Amino acid sequence: MQQAQFPLLSMIIFLPAIAGLVILALPANRREWIRWTALGTALFTLLLSILLYIAYDAESGGYQWVEGPIPWIPGLGASYFVGVDGISTPLVLLGALVVAFGIMVSWNVEDRPREFFSFIMFLGTSVLGVFSSLDLFMLFFFFELAVFPKFLMIAMWGYPKTREYGAMKLTLYLFLGSVISLVGVLAMYFAAGKNTFNMLELEQAGFPLAFQQAWFPVVFLGFAILGGIFPFHSWAPDGHVAAPTAVSMLLAGVEMKVGAFAALRVAIMMMPEGARAWAWLILILATINVVYGALIALVQTDFKYVIGFSSVSHMGLVLIGFATLSTEGLLGAGMQMFSHGVMTALFFAVVGMVYDRAHTRDIAQLGGLFRKMPVAAIGFIVAGLVSMGMPGFSGFMAEFPIFMGAWQVAPVVAIIAVLGVIVTAGYILLVVRRVFFGEIPPALDKTVGDVSTMDKIVVISLSAIMIALGWFPQALMAGMIHSGVQRIVALLGGA
Amino acid sequence: MEPVAFQPSMILAILPEIGLVALAAVVLLLDIAWRNRGAARRNLGWVTAGGLLVVLALTIAFARPADAPQLIFGGMLRLDGMAFVFRLVFVMGAALTALFAMEHEPVGRHGEFYGLLLLATLGMNLMAASADLVMLYLAIETTSLPLYVMAGFKTRDPRSTEAGIKYFLFGAMTSAVMLYGFSLLFGLTGVTNLYAMAGQITAGTLAPALPLLAAVLVLVGFGFKVSAVPFHFWAPDVYEGAPTPVAGFLSTASKAAGFAVLMRVLVAVFPTQTAELLDWRVLVGVLALASMIIGNILAIVQKNIKRLLAYSSIAQAGYMLVGVAAGSELGAAGVTFYLLSYLVTNLAAFGIVELVGRTLCSDDLDAYAGLQRRNPNLALALLVALLSLGGIPPLSGFVGKLLVFGAAVQSGTLGIVLAFVGVLTSVVALYYYLTILKIVYVQPSAPDARPLPVSPPWRVALVVCVAFILFMGTVIGPWFGLSTLGASGLF
């Protein structure tokens, strides 16, 4: 494996955290300095991750931009070891993207902006670190680094009525998941007996069958809680709804992928026999995710809860893709992680823009907003089409391979999941019609204005990404993800 | 292992202890010399902390362990990694406590307070190095007696005197039970040296139940020192009543001393049995289980932050006992790392409690409402301390927890059970730590938001604590190396 000539990945990981520290040291009343430092760093990080994405060579595949292993705790074999493959490169891009756009939609935060922009940068480092880790200790380190920014950002800037409950529920659920996985990971470390946390070596450890069968569900479910797996999903809607807009975007858009990614990277890739033995359970739970999440979204009266439950439903598709353990399914899951991340970030951004202007999220009190904020409305519709899996949008390119994969292993899962997508179309169309079309309530007619330029940039960029991916999936992403999937399938012992 | 014959160089090995005695004498003499100069007597804190820094330097320069552990002074003391690392812990804890105590009205201007602090530290140093039952008992009492007085130092405050009496009564009782255990050990083996005793017990001529009975009795005394359930009843009342800096010292250095002797005696004297139920590791595992569950659950309902920290410290003792119950070198290294981390973390937390309690005259959780708006940096320091207690990276508490749970998972089925209970109760613990942070960051402050004045010594101590929490949590290698050095002295 070739060492990177330039520490691009380390810069992407640590720049946000450094900016977070710098912001904390700035005087609290210098709002301009604070937010420009945050945005400048986030955009630069985004630029670097675009470079990383372009420079990734999908032809040769494997881990690239590798740095390390540099010993961190020599006695335990933990090291600083980063690198990206075809699965994680798009996720690094996604993380940098959502952090930057999250800052842009929170441009006008009034209450304690210093802490807000600082904490969001730490959250950025946490997710980017997890996606790039090639060392299990490091993965955990970054995984749990997210605890305090998540909690404080929801509790401090969230929706006043539910923020304390939502913040606590989300944080404790996710901490519970991660510590359960931690025990499993420690068991793997000692069972391998190699005195190393190096994931590439642990993949080759060849854990005994009985060990894999016993510990796979522990590690997988622990991480999958953060991926929103049924029946441990209820933190997601409550937490997302209580959070301020930028944090909802990051939580649903990126953090849920952190959970899914870790479940794939640690549980499935290191214990393939365990994955085979338990795939049936994941398929069942994930199918419930898809259908149940969509049905609950259908009956919500709160605009933001609709999107909150739609995330539960869509993450179910990612988990179905994983559980097929096939090339098609994993390819679709990889695409879906990126596509859903962008889509749900856009959803939450628009929900936030509507709420900031209308001061209500009750669907019954909204209406006709298309005329007031056309760009935001079109953005929401684009995201809606993605979420329905319309051809020509990124969602189709993600969901179609998942259904193909599911059909091969369990046709009934594919059929039920497709039904879930039909329900999705139902709730999306319903919400779009009620919120953006029809009569505008007189109270809103006077008060609601158009979104800001910064908001428009966010909406247009995110929409453009999803449309571009829908038209040129192979060139833009599928080729890269395919190279990553091949490696996973090889580990699984398939062709 | 045979004691080494006396050599003058042995004096070097106890240079830190000689330094502590000399420093105590200097502090007491200065106290007399400054009898009529009230303002100057506050500076006794600087003298104490500065002197302890010298002692720290002496320890590192002269009292480093030899390549192989040595029994010195006729087998009374053992010069090894364990004794070395724990001395650093105690001396550092005492120095930070002296700085935190300087502004604390009831104690800060009394030379005898600093003198007692130094004598207690002397006792702890000897506890960590003792290799003989007689020496061990003397060291434990040398530690305990000054601590009893320190807990009751506010003689005009009934809660403080109650704390002192309660601590003394509990301490005396558990000490008596422990002494009975010591006498059984002596009766069974005919020797008082721990390492000579180990040979007698492993020789296998005794019924395995007899040493176990002695182990149970001895554990009563050590369990009291580390405040493990069911010997924890004193902790909440004493922490609440004692002057806050003393509570901080009790919860960190004194607990560390308890763990040092606990590990040394259990590992050195009692063999790990093949018949699992007769194994001391099961005993310790049960204490760990009870401490983690009861400490964390009772902490949730506390309204007073000192009581909350007391229950949290009971739970933390449980996590450390998980590492002890692993009975391995990794476990002992984990406990040592955990104690190093816990020292700076809990001292930081108690330091902040001291400041808030002193300025707002309240230790209730409600007093912390809106602290972030009063002093953002202070709130950030509290955030660092509480999250480190909760085991969140990049703070030192994360590594400590990872190490003890790792050692537990390595040790087998009992350990895996302990690790699962440990991580599940950590979630409970995170709940109440986050509740405090919620009060600090989210709730609005009282209308009479007085500023919180921070004095130089207090600031120095807090900055040192926070820096160590971050440093140990990110640059982990050297600290883990130090902990391994400590653990290597046991095995």
Name the poorly predicted regions of chain B: none
Give the percentage of residues in beta strands of chain B.
under 5%
Largest β sheet strand count, sense and barrel closure of chain A: 2 strands, antiparallel
Q: Which structural class do you get from the secondary structure elements of chain A?
A: mainly alpha
Largest interface (CB within 8 Å) is between:
A-B, 40 and 36 residues
Order of helices and strands of chain A: HHEEHHHHHHHHHHHHHHHHHH
The radius of gyration over CA of chain A amounts to 21 Å
Helix content class of chain B? over 70%
> How large is the share of residues in beta strands of chain A?
under 5%
Number of domains of chain A: 1
Rough shape of chain B?
Answer: globular
User: Could you give the order of the helices and strands of chain B?
Assistant: HHHHEEHHHHHHHHHHHHHHHHHH
Mean pLDDT of chain A comes to 91
- Biggest sheet, spatial arrangement of strands of chain B: 1-2
**Helix/strand/pairing class of chain B, anyone?**
mainly alpha
Our count of helices of chain B gives: 22
